[in-house]
Amino acid sequence: MQSNDYLVMKGICKSFSSVKVLKDCDFSVRKGEIHGFLGGNGAGKSTFMNILGGIYSKDAGEIFIDGKKVEIANPMQSMRHGISFIHQELKLFSMRSVADNIYMSSLPIKGFGLIDDKKENEMAKEWLERIELDVSPQTFVEDLSIAERQMVEIAKALSIQAQIFIFDEPTSSQTRKETQILFRIIRKLRDEGASIIFISHKFDEVFELCDRVTVLRDGKNVGTVNVAETNADELVNMVVGIRLEQYYPEVKKLPLEETALEVTNFRNRRLNDVSFSLKKGEVLGLFGLVGAGRSELARAIFGLDYISSGELRIYGKTRKITSPKEAMKNRIGFLTEDRRGEGLVLGMDINSNLNIPILKQLTIPVVNFLMKKKMDTNTRIAFDQFNIVASGPRQRVRLLSGGNQQKIVLGKWFLTDPDIFILDEPTRGVDIKVKADLYEQIVDLAASGRSVLFISSEAPELIGISHRILVMRNGRITGEYMRGDVTEEQLVRCAMGGEK
Questions:
Q1: Do the beta carbons of residue 195 and residue 35 sit within 8 Å?
Q2: Which residues pair with 482 in a beta bridge?
Q3: What is the 3-state secondary structure (H, E, C) of the chain?
Q4: 349 C-beta neighbours (distance < 10 Å), count
Q5: Which pLDDT does position 278 carry in this prediction?
Q6: What would the pLDDT profile of 422-470 be if each residue is shown by its tens digit?
Q7: Other CB atoms closer than 10 Å to residue 10's CB: what's the count?
Q8: At what angle do helices 176-191 and 146-159 cross, to 10 degrees?
Q9: 28-60: buried (b, 16+ CB within 10 Å) or exposed (e) per residue?
Q10: Beta strands 259-267 and 272-279: pairing type?
Q11: Could you tell me where in the chain the CATH 3.40.50.300 domains are found?
């Protein structure tokens, strides 16, 4: 234990049933430090931080805060020790005001046990001003953006005098501008002496923001390094045990020139004369900044958004697709960027989610009897094909990691046997190990003769697995690049309106 370590966790162990999730794990954070926390799917990151947050109890080990040994048996004790856990799924009451949410655990009371609204609003306003959030304390949380709600969580943490902040994937639903505002606040907290734990799957954010980074793999701490003294290659190796050059799978050369999908002059309120073709067995990357029209193009092809003019051909035949049902008939599958809101039914189990698109095929009309055995067979196929990690097909989808949820959405469409996959941000919010799995599965789909339109805001992954890359800006295709002939800088420059 170093003298400047504010939080120290030593020898932490945790098992669920007979499965050891954490194995004698150590971790420390200094005062006035932003400490990155990385690890693959199932590495134990969530369990480790949930012990610090009082959600799980440790089986063994010790926790020290500011040199004093502490016990954390529940979230309330965690909060009393100055720990604030800002979850990816924000824990706010949407139908209550910003001020109510900030002071929910310590509402100011006046005579007759009534809440002192005036005092509450005045106190809340001070915290909002400190984090530069220009909203009224009386605003209802449901009227705020995701980024603004996150700021309310930070204000709430400051109000309880938190000194340890845990940020769990805080930028997964943010624009670049919102991310930069958040980073400015996090740096401000660090400069004021707070200890920041920053959990992220995005290496660029770790290099931009963090002072040190710790990596967990298989429930063990495999190392802590200074960010200024490491690189992406070393971090990838620490997270998944492979070098960066092994991260992307081999992409086979296109064997044929047969066109699977052709879009000609698509127009609507967001698309402006978009034309392109997708070859059989091709991974076609689609890059662009927020608002470029990428998702709108995907939704238009799948029949979710209206097209005012334009033509769609599938294997040379003109098709008019005005609904997802018609898209599926034409063997198109669509993985939406909003997996939790549109891609999954979180309250249902894995088996049901995987089979939703093909329920009609699994029903005997006379008795409306669902063929459970066929559903189970389909689920086993998806588990094997996409390396889904779960306790079994009956596990609720909401209890799975983000990476496994994404694999289920991909597996759901795989079971419909499409010729054409449209994948909108398929690797968003998943860890590097799951990303590597998804890259291999996408490349395998193309190698089997399927065609993939791969939409992403991460230029390196498009360069890593695409045969070609298109760039969109302001609803138009503004650039086209062949594999091996483009850099990340060129893609970004084209997306921003610079020279190709």
A1: yes
A2: 468
A3: CCCCEEEEEEEEEEEECCEEEEEEEEEEEECCEEEEEEECCCCCHHHHHHHHCCCCCCCEEEEEECCEEECCCCHHHHHHCCEEEECCCCCCCCCCEHHHHHCCCCCCECHHHCECHHHHHHHHHHHHHHCCCCCCCCCEHHHCCHHHHHHHHHHHHHHCCCCEEEEECCCCCCCHHHHHHHHHHHHHHHHCCCEEEEECCCHHHHHHHCCEEEEEECCEEEEEEEHHHCCHHHHHHHHHCCCHHHCCCCCCCCCCCCEEEEEEEEECCCCEEEEEEEECCCEEEEECCCCCCHHHHHHHHCCCCCCCEEEEEECCEEECCCCHHHHHHCCEEEECCCHHHHHCCCCCEHHHHHHHHHHHHHEECCCCEECHHHHHHHHHHHHHHHCCCCCCCCCEHHHCCHHHHHHHHHHHHHCCCCCEEEEECCCCCCCHHHHHHHHHHHHHHHHCCCEEEEECCCHHHHHHHCCEEEEEECCEEEEEEECCCCCHHHHHHHHCCCCC
A4: 18
A5: 97
A6: 999 888 767 777 788 889 889 998 999 999 999 998 888 899 999 999 9
A7: 16
A8: 10
A9: bbbebbbbbbbbbbbbbbbbbbbbbbbbbebee
A10: antiparallel
A11: 5-245, 259-495
Alpha-carbon torsion 139, 144, 148, 150, what sign?
positive
Q: Alpha-carbon distance 471 to 455, whole Å?
A: 10
Task: At 122, list the tokens.
Answer: 């005045």
CATH of span 259-495: 3.40.50.300
Q: What is the mean predicted confidence (pLDDT) over 253-276?
A: 91
- Identity of residue 125: K
CATH class of the domain defined by 5-245? alpha beta
Inter-CA distances, 156 with 34, 102, 178, Å:
19, 4, 19
Residue 155 corresponds to which amino acid? A
Tell which wins on pLDDT, 183 or 427: 183
Distance CA 253, CA 483 (A): 10
358 has pLDDT over 70: no
Closest CA to 169 of 143, 197, 193: 197
| Residue 27, both tokens | 């971790």
Phi and psi dihedrals of 336, rounded to 5? -70, 155
pTM: 0.61
Q: Which amino acid is at 209?
A: L
> How crowded is the C-beta side of 76, counted as CA atoms within 13 Å?
3
pLDDT at 2: 58
Which of 29-38, 376-385, 394-403 is the most confident on average? 29-38
Task: Say whether pLDDT at 313 is over 90.
Answer: yes
